[in-house]
Each structure stands twice: as structure tokens, then as C-alpha cells.
């Protein structure tokens, strides 16, 4: 089957999709967006978390056909998504990806000499994860970033227990979560300062 | 068709350059791969992609022990989209087995399967679902055989032999062929010492089978090459060890198997053994197409070895004034169907079985069994974890029997620099065991009724049961427990443990740039971060490029045994020092006649310049290297040699370095429902020298959390009647979430080890040892129950089962 939907503000079309394929599989294997991760493919680990019409979901549990005509934001589009939100006001619904006009002009970033991505514009939560040491192997990171960004979108100054509750669907095996808490606190504090 | 126009696969790792003006050792520099990891651009092994690639699928045994009567692949092979179905008969070379130390593991089962989930056949197809469906069409007829599941069934007179005709190097000294390896440690005279004991305590402890549960599944991409070889992109802990096992099975010389480390989503020991490496290569070479294999979580539970479950019997004695008199211990580890790292785990469990204590009269025996249970091998803590669980419970029992404070009792017996290990080895660098305990004990306690700390009634998220809203504080009892542990660093028992680093220094666009090229597996620990720091410190550069890890450079050894910062960090330091000498040679040749300091002073490289130890600038690096070829050196680095433990007495300087951590756990237990909330897990650890404090603390907190997991929730459950795994999923095998994990305050000591690079002490594993027994001690303290098994489940606390 063919599925049409918007990913990170860009209209996308996937052909020859087998009915059993998940959104996660289509993103990773058909659209060249492997940022959403495949740690359990069972809805337990949160590593595949994306925003579907603004709502954080495990993309492994969403059949690709279900996203027909809908908007998906993945970690690859998170920086842009957060930027749009800052520039055009808050966006609780999530329908605020790149405008269609802008999306049509979108181009892949030129291959950089340096692969550290220095100079790449990051969302506050992405920068905070790096600065706080919340990234080790990094496999849980994309899902956690989507979930934490969504938390900070609806709650600018969450308590530690709020952070724990919001991120309780995202497993991390490396960090013991302390530095993930640090990162969310840091992003919230920086967000507070910026207001 | 597209075979000769093959492109580089998507996700192939590239150089990563990091620019830092400061950022030498001791700075908390940030990960050079951090931006890639937060933008989703960092390519893990499961992200590899090639335009005409096929998907590989493993077909695994559904029974634990059986003769394979027949395999019929015809129906699977006839399916549209299926390119190959391989069984044992398709293996191309004489060598059909692999293994870390003993080559007892069949690439594909030959006539017999020895554990649930053993690979029997391989399928390559154009879609993963097609491959899965084809696997379901392979018909295998099994004739089930009697099971070996524990020590009694392994050593029974009529026990089936898991491996008949063993000829490995342990076969000659083990008391039974179903014992992989046995290591006694005997020192002093336990019978005599027992007479001096005023109190004696005994305990039987059971440690459950833990899974590494790294999040990035076993995966990789094999691309057949025009020279008949293969390029393999994979997540592993030790590229060269993989290579040594892969090449013979493929019938290829090692230089035709080119391995590149792909992004690794955690490891924790679970990637020491091969998983899909050989399978993907076999399918790629057979089909002539790139083949990607990605395990799902279900398969991952079968695709790697686990932590050995153990039964441990301990007897300790002590005098009235609290001095240990003796220790007698027997440790039985279940190695499962194949040897994996069992022999080395036995060596660790026995040699570290007395813990970080002074005890002169010791008899320890550790064995690993061959059974039909899932194979067990390396996991963070490696044999020392199971022993620590037992000896720390014993310490609490002894203290209680003597009416002493459990921390004071431990401090009375704590080893220190100069103490003799039960192996006779002198602990010849700082061993601040008593101090670590003092530090965790001195820390202020979390407030009582901490779930009310917000002042708005009970926050259920801070209570046992959490959002299930099972209590608002009724029936909740607090407990506090302590533990401390000892772990070795580096490969032990005479192993020639080395690492290799290649460093290239050159001027690019007027700037000196160092490139570090090693085969070290970056599994998340931050080795790449410290390599860049070391290069900055040693070469005075700001820009460091990290080359992808591959087999084009010498072995780095394993990312295991808390060894990589010591070993590959040491190798980078060592090669940088040699590069620096070359720089100075060139400098002397070019400029020596202009300034006498070139010949007479101690010279350093700092801030891109050659400076004297007095701080005088002699030249810029750019000037020295101008017009020169890049300085390009590749050197090996070794730690001091060790010796094997004597097979009868266990004596010998078998370990390189020891590392210590202590924990204090504060738990709250809902005694009515048997639910546990760990409120705080404070830890103190000596790291010798923190090369990067941010990473050090992250390692300690992560290791602590894995110990917490095994204390209260983690266990692979193997049905004793069928030897089948009952919970191979994250639905049924639980690892701690952020709600299960408490705050983990970390206190880091830096007492230099004079034998180690920068004085550092390997640190990744020690926190995983003491965290588990500290939590258990706290639960015992809260409930008064004995609790001799991990994990502590609700029924153990309520007595309902």
C-alpha cells in the first residue's frame, strides 16, 4: 500500500508498504530516518518515541497505515520543531512543523567535514542532554528527547517527580537517569531564563 | 546486477573532530559524538543500510536439549523473496565452532541442540517479515534428550555429558566433564582458625540470572567484497577477538574480513561473545548481496550470554572483638550450554570471593557447570558480583551476631594497601575500603516521610507502588543497608593483555591536528572523549580527530573488565609520548642551533607550542612540523604481567589492579504488599584519577542502577522442568525505570595508583557489585527477613508464596 504523511514538516510518500509494517519501520527503513530507535519494538522502552499529531507515541506500536494524512515529528526534526515553537508561539497540538512552503524548499544539510555537528542548531533539550552528560550509548536518547521536550512544552518548571513520571516510559540502561534528570532541569532553567 | 557498483553503506562511521582550547585530562569535556547522538544522526549497527541489501533471520531451537533428527528447508527456500536458507551442512570451512576461550559453540547446530534458542538455520530474504515467515517454514524434527539443569543433574552418575570428548585446556583438571573449570583458593589453615572463632555464621545464597539488557539490539551489516572477502559493520566489544573467531569459520584469511565498529547501543559484557557476526557474513557470501541482521528484543534475550546465576555457600568466623578468623566458601556458577567466559568468571569469583577484607585462613572453591540452561558469560562485575552479594550478607550476619555496627565491623576487617589477598597477591596501591564506608555512612539521611516533602500530602510517586497508588504511607517501613566490594581491573591470570594506539600529528590549514586511531569499542562509556583529552594533554593541540574503530589498526583488547581507559587510554598516552619525542627530534634538528634549551631543558608541548618546563616558548608546533611528513606512529601498550592461579592452591599474582566502591541504600518497604522503593543509593568510589569527572559519575550511577535492578526486579526465569526461558521481553524482564531509580549521590576519591597511566583506576564495574547487597541489607533492615536470593520479589516479603 501507499502511505502519505508529513514527517518533520515535509510531506512524504511511502510505497509498497506491507500492511504489518510499523511507523517505526517505515521511518527507519523506507525514509532514511533511523533516529527513532528499535530497542524493544513492543512499546516497553520508549526508544522509538515520536510525536504523532503532537502526541508522544511509541512508533513501533503504530501501524504505518494509521498515519495516513497525519503529522509526525522525529528526533531528526526536533530542533526545527522546537525553533518553530519558540518563534511562532507555543504549539500544544503539534501541528506546527515546518510550513508547507518552507518544507518544499527544504534541503538536506550539506555533508560536513567535521562529523561532530559543531555549529548545528539544537533544541534546548538536545543541548542540555549533551551538557549534562545525559548521553552515554545514546540509544535511548532520541525517545527521551521527544518525551522530555513534550514535558517542557506543557510544563515549564516540572518538579523532579513530574520529570520522573513523564519519562517513566523511556528505559535507559547506561546512565542511572540522574544525568537525564539534570538535563531536563537544565533545559527548564535555561527556558525560564530565556522568557 | 548492482553488485559491481556497490556504494559505501549508509551509516558507515566517519572521522569525528573535536576542537577544544582546554579539554585535557581532568576536564569534564563533552562527548565528541554527543551532537550526532542527540540529533539522531549517529548511526548504530541497526541503522546500517545498503541499497540492495537482504535481511537475515536466525532460526533457533524451540527445545533445550535434543537430537536433531531432520531439517527440511525446501518449503522455506521455495518462498518468493527468499535468497538463501543455510544449515550446518552449508558451512564452508573445516572450522565449525567458535568461542572466546574454548571453541565449543557451533555456528549452527550439528545434530544436537544444547539450549533453548540455539541457532539452527539462517535465512536471507528481501524483507524481514519474509525472512521470519520463511523461518517458520523450516521443518525441524527434534528428539528430546534428558536435561541437565543444575549441579545435581550435571554430576549425577548417569548425567548426559553436555560436551562429550572434551579436549580443551581445562578438561584435564576438572573433576567432571560437566564442570567447565574449577578454581580452589587455599591459604592458611581454616580448620585451625575456626577454633579461634567466637562466632560462626553460615549462609546459602542464590543469585538470579541477570541480562545485560543493552538497548541497541545485536545487529550489523555484512557486505561481500570483490576479492571474495567481506566487510562487516557491527556493534561489538572487541573487534579483533571477533575477527579471530569469524575468519576461520568463513574459511577466509583475517585480512579478507574487514571489520568496522558501528554505533554500539550499550554492551555491559553482552557483546563479548559473537552473535550475528558469522551468520551475516555467511549469508552475504552465499548470496553475493549485503545482508543486514537486526535481532528483535525477544531474540536478543537468546542472542547473547547472561550473568551466571550462582549458588554460594559461605561460612565465616570472627572473634568477640570483631576480627574475621576464617572463610570457607563454595561458589557454583551455572555456565549453561557453552563455555563463553565461564573459566575467567570462575577465576574472578574465587580470587575475589573473600571480598575487600583481611582474612588469613581461607578455603574457597568456585566451579562453573555445563548445563542445558542458557549460556552465561560476561556481564559487568564478572563473577565478583555474585560473591559480593554473599560475603556482604555474611558481614551483616556476623555484625548482628556480635552486636556490632555493620559498618564498624567491616571497617575493623577492611583491607588496606599492603594487605595480602587470599591468592597471596599484595594489594600494592591504595585500598581505601574503610574510608569509602565512612563516607557513605557520614552522608546526611534523606528526610523521613520523604513522600510528604512537598508539603501537599503524599506524593505516591515517591512511595512503594508508585502511581499504582497502593499506599499513602501506611505500612511503610524504612531500612538502611551498607555494602562494599572489590573488583579486578584488566584481563588477569597471565593473559597477554595489550592495547594499540595509532596517533598521527600533522598541520592542517596552519593548525596542528592530532588523529587518534584505535580499535577500541566505544560502547557508550566515553572512551572517545578521554582519548581526545589525552591527546590534548600530551601533544598540546586543541583539535583532535577520532578515527572510526576498525581492524586496520592493532587490537585494543576488549571494552570489558573496567580496562579501556587504563589500557587504550594508556596506549594513546604512550603513542602520544612517542609522537612528542619525534616532534622534539624534528625541532632539535631544525632549531636546535638557535636556542640551547632545545638540548638542555625538559620540553613540553602546550597550547600548540614547544615550551620548556620553565615556560619559555621555543617554537610553535606548526613551525616545527611545517614541510614535514605527518608523524604517524602505531604502538602497543601492556600492563604489568600477571600469572595464572595455581590450580590446586589458587596462589599467584593473578590480577593487575583492584578497584573498590561502597554503597549505602535507603529503602522504604510497604510491608503489607511487599513493594520496595529505593529512596537513595549513595556511593563512594576511589577512581585513582578522574580523567573526566562527568563521565566518571555517569559510569558510577549507571553501574549502581544495574545493581539495583538485580536486587529488586531483574531475573531471567528458566523453567527448571524444560530449561526454557520464560520471560524474554521487556514486558516480563523488568529493568529499572526512572521512577524505580533513586537519587544516587556520588563521592569520588582520587588516590593515585602509581602503576597506572595518570594514576587512574578502572571504574566501570565496581559500583555494580556493592549496590545489590546494600539494597538487600536495607530491605532486611526494614523487614527483619533473611532474604538470601536476588531479586527480592513481593512474595519474598509477604510470605504469600
Strand order of the largest sheet of chain B: 4-8-2-15-12-13-14
Q: In percent, how much strand structure appears in the residues of chain B?
A: 15-25%
Low-pLDDT parts of chain B are 1-5
- The end-to-end span of chain A amounts to 46 Å
- Which pair has the most extensive contact? A-B, 67 and 73 residues
CATH topology descriptor of the largest domain in chain A: DNA polymerase, domain 1
Structural class assignment of chain B? alpha+beta
Radius of gyration of chain B: 27 Å
Strand order of the largest sheet of chain A: 2-1-5-3-4
Shape designation of chain B: globular
Mean pLDDT of chain A equals 88
Number of strands of chain A: 5
Supply Rg of chain A: 16 Å
The major beta sheet of chain B can be summarized as:
7 strands, mixed
State the assembly state of the protein chains: heterodimer
CATH architecture of the largest domain in chain A: Orthogonal Bundle
Alpha-beta content class of chain A:
alpha+beta
Give the fraction of residues assigned to helices of chain B: 25-40%
What this model shows, in words?
- The complex is a heterodimer of chains A (195) and B (801).
- Chain A has helices at residues 23-30, 78-87, 100-104, 124-131, 141-154, 160-166, 178-194; strands spanning 3-7, 10-14, 49-52, 55-58, 71-73.
- Chain A is an alpha+beta fold and 195 residues long.
- Chain A has seven helices and five strands.
- Chain A starts with a strand and ends with a helix.
- Chain A folds into two domains: 3-74, Beta-grasp domain (Ubiquitin-like (UB roll)), CATH 3.10.20.30; 79-99 and 120-194, DNA polymerase, domain 1.
- A five-stranded mixed sheet of chain A has the order 2-1-5-3-4, sandwiched between helices.
- The model of chain A is unreliable at 92-98 and 103-115 (pLDDT under 50).
- With 801 residues, chain B is α+β, with helices and mostly antiparallel strands.
- Chain B folds into four domains: 46-145 and 217-264 and 271-303, Aldehyde oxidase/xanthine dehydrogenase, a/b hammerhead (Aldehyde Oxidoreductase, domain 3), CATH 3.90.1170; 151-206 and 308-384, 2-Layer Sandwich (Aldehyde Oxidoreductase, domain 4), CATH 3.30.365.10; 422-492 and 655-798, 2-Layer Sandwich (Aldehyde Oxidoreductase, domain 4); 498-638, Aldehyde oxidase/xanthine dehydrogenase, molybdopterin binding domain (Aldehyde Oxidoreductase, domain 4).
- Helices cover 25% and strands 25% of the residues of chain B.
- Chain B contains 19 helices and 31 strands.
- In chain B, the strands form eight sheets. In chain B, strands 4-8-2-15-12-13-14 form a seven-stranded mixed sheet, sandwiched between helices.
- In chain B, helix 6 packs across helix 7 (277-287), helix 9 (342-351) runs parallel beside helix 10 and helix 13 (527-539) packs parallel to helix 14 (564-591).
- Residues 1-5 of chain B have low confidence and may be disordered.
- Classes of the chains: A alpha+beta (195), B alpha+beta (801).
- Chains A and B meet through helix 4, helix 5, helix 6 and helix 7 of A and strand 1, helix 1 and helix 17 of B.
Amino acid at each position: 500500500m501507499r502511505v502519505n504523511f508529513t514527517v518533520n514538516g515535509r510531506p512524504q510518500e511511502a510505497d509498497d508498504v506491507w500492511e504489518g509494517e510499523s511507523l517505526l519501520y517505515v521511518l527507519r527503513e523506507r525514509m532514511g530516518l533511523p533516529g527513532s530507535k528499535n530497542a524493544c519494538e513492543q512499546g516497553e522502552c520508549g526508544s522509538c518515541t515520536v510525536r504523532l499529531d503532537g502526541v508522544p507515541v511509541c512508533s513501533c506500536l503504530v501501524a504505518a497505515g494509521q498515519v495516513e494524512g497525519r503529522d509526525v515529528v522525529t528526533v531528526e526534526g526536533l530542533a526545527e520543531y522546537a525553533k518553530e515553537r519558540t518563534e511562532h508561539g507555543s504549539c500544544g497540538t503539534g501541528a506546527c512543523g515546518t510550513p508547507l512552503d518552507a518544507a518544499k524548499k527544504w534541503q538536506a544539510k550539506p555533508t560536513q567535514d567535521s562529523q561532530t555537528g559543531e555549529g548545528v542548531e539544537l533544541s534546548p533539550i538536545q543541548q542540555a542532554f549533551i551538557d549534562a552528560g545525559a548521553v552515554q550509548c545514546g540509544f535511548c536518547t532520541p525517545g527521551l528527547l521527544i518525551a522530555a521536550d513534550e514535558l517542557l512544552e506543557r510544563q515549564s518548571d516540572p518538579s523532579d517527580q513530574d520529570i520522573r513520571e513523564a519519562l517513566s516510559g523511556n528505559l535507559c540502561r547506561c546512565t542511572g537517569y540522574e544525568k537525564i534528570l539534570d538535563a531536563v532541569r537544565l533545559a527548564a532553567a535555561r527556558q525560564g531564563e530565556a522568557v | 546486477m548492482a553488485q559491481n557498483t556497490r556504494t559505501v553503506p549508509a551509516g558507515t562511521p566517519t572521522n569525528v573532530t573535536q576542537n577544544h582550547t582546554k579539554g585535557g585530562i581532568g576536564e569534564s569535556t563533552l562527548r565528541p559524538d554527543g551532537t550526532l547522538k542527540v540529533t539522531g544522526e549517529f548511526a548504530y549497527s541497526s541503522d546500517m543500510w545498503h541499497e540492495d541489501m537482504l535481511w537475515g533471520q536466525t532460526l533457533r531451537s524451540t527445545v533445550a536439549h535434543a537430537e536433531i533428527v531432520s531439517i527440511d528447508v525446501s518449503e522455506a527456500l521455495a518462498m518468493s523473496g527468499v535468497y538463501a536458507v543455510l544449515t550446518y551442512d552449508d558451512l564452508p570451512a573445516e572450522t565449525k565452532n567458535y568461542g572466546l576461550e574454548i571453541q565449543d559453540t557451533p555456528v549452527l547446530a550439528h545434530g544436537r541442540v544444547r539450549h533453548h534458542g540455539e541457532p539452527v538455520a539462517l535465512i536471507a530474504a528481501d524483507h524481514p517479515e519474509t525472512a521470519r515467515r520463511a523461518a517458520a517454514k523450516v521443518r525441524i524434527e527434534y528428539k528430546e534428550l534428558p536435561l541437565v539443569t543444575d549441579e545435581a543433574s550435571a554430576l549425577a552418575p548417569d548425567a548426559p555429558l553436555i560436551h562429550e570428548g572434551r579436549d580443551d585446556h581445562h578438561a584435564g583438571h576438572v573433576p567432571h566433564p560437566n564442570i567447565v573449570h574449577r578454581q580452589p583458593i587455599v591459604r592458611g589453615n581454616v580448620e585451625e582458625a575456626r577454633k579461634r572463632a567466637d562466632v560462626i555464621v553460615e549462609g546459602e545464597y542464590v543469585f538470579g540470572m541477570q541480562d545485560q539488557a543493552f538497548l541497541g539490539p545485536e545487529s550489523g551489516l555484512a557486505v561481500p567484497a570483490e576479492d571474495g572477502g567481506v566487510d562487516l559493520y557491527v556493534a561489538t566489544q572487541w573487534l579483533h577477538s571477533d575477527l579471530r573467531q569469524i575468519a576461520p569459520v568463513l574459511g577466509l584469511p583475517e585480512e579478507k574480513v574487514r571489520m568496522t565498529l558501528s554505533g554500539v547501543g550499550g554492551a555491559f559484557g553482552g557483546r563479548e561473545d559473537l552473535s550475528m557476526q558469522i551468520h551475516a557474513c555467511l549469508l552475504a557470501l552465499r548470496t553475493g548481496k549485503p545482508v543486514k541482521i537486526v535481532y528483535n528484543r525477544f531474540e536478543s534475550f537468546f542472542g547473547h550470554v547472561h550473568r551466571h546465576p550462582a549458588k554460594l555457600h559461605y561460612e565465616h568466623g570472627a572473634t568477640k572483638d570483631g576480627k574475621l578468623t576464617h572463610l570457607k566458601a563454595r561458589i557454583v556458577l551455572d555456565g549453561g550450554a557453552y563455555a563463553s567466559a565461564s573459566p575467567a568468571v570462575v577465576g574472578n569469583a574465587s580470587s575475589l570471593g573473600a571480598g575487600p577484607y583481611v582474612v588469613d585462613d581461607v578455603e574457597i572453591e568456585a566451579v562453573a557447570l555445563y548445563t542445558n540452561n542458557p549460556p552465561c558469560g560476561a556481564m559487568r562485575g564478572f563473577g565478583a558480583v555474585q560473591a559480593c552479594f554473599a560475603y556482604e550478607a555474611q558481614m551483616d550476619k556476623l555484625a548482628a551476631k556480635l552486636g556490632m555496627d555493620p559498618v564498624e565491623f567491616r571497617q575493623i576487617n577492611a583491607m588496606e594497601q599492603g594487605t595480602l589477598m587470599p591468592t597471596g597477591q599484595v594489594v600494592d596501591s591504595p585500598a581505601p575500603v574503610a574510608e569509602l564506608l565512612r563516607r557513605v555512612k557520614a552522608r546526611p539521611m534523606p528526610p523521613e516521610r520523604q513522600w510528604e516533602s512537598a508539603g501537599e500530602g503524599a506524593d505516591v510517586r515517591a512511595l512503594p507502588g508508585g502511581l499504582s497508588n497502593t499506599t499513602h504511607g501506611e505500612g511503610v517501613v524504612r531500612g538502611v543497608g551498607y555494602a562494599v566490594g572489590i573488583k579486578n581491573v584488566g584481563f588477569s591470570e597471565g593473559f597477554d593483555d595489550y592495547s594499540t594506539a595509532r596517533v598521527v600529528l600533522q598541520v592542517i590549514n596552519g593548525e596542528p591536528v592530532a588523529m587518534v586511531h584505535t580499535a577500541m569499542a566505544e560502547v557508550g562509556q566515553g572512551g572517545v572523549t578521554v582519548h581526545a583529552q589525552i591527546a590534548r594533554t600530551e601533544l598540546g593541540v586543541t583539535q583532535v580527530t577520532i578515527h572510526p574503530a576498525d581492524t586496520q589498526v592493532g587490537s585494543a583488547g576488549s571494552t570489558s573488565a573496567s580496562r579501556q581507559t587504563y589500557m587504550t587510554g594508556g596506549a594513546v598516552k604512550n603513542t602520544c609520548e612517542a609522537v612528542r619525542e619525534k616532534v622534539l627530534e624534528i625541532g632539535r634538528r631544525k632549531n636546535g642551533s638557535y636556542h640551547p634549551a632545545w638540548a638542555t631543558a625538559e620540553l613540553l608541548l602546550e597550547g600548540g607550542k614547544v615550551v620548556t618546563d620553565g615556560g619559555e616558548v621555543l617554537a610553535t608546533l606548526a613551525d616545527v612540523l611545517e614541510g614535514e611528513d605527518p608523524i604517524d606512529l602505531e604502538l602497543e601498550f601492556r600492563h604489568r604481567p600477571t600469572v595464572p592461579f595455581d590450580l590446586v592452591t589458587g596462589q599467584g599474582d593473578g590480577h593487575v589492579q583492584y578497584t573498590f566502591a561502597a554503597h549505602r541504600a535507603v529503602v522504604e518497604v510497604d510491608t503489607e504488599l511487599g513493594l520496595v522503593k529505593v529512596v537513595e543509593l549513595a556511593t563512594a568510589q576511589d577512581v585513582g584519577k578522574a580523567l573526566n569527572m562527568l563521565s566518571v559519575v555517569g559510569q558510577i550511577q549507571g553501574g549502581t542502577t544495574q545493581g539495583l535492578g538485580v536486587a529488586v526486579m531483574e531475573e531471567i526465569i528458566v523453567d527448571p522442568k524444560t530449561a526454557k526461558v520464560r520471560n524474554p521481553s521487556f514486558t516480563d524482564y523488568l529493568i529499572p525505570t526512572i521512577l524505580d531509580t533513586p537519587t544516587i549521590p556520588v563521592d569520588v576519591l582520587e588516590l593515585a595508583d602509581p602503576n597506572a597511566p595518570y594514576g587512574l583506576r578502572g571504574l566501570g564495574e565496581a559500583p555494580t557489585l556493592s549496590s545489590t547487597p546494600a539494597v538487600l541489607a536495607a530491605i532486611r533492615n526494614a523487614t527483619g527477613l533473611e532474604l538470601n536470593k536476588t531479586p527480592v520479589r513481593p512474595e519474598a516479603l509477604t510470605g504469600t508464596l
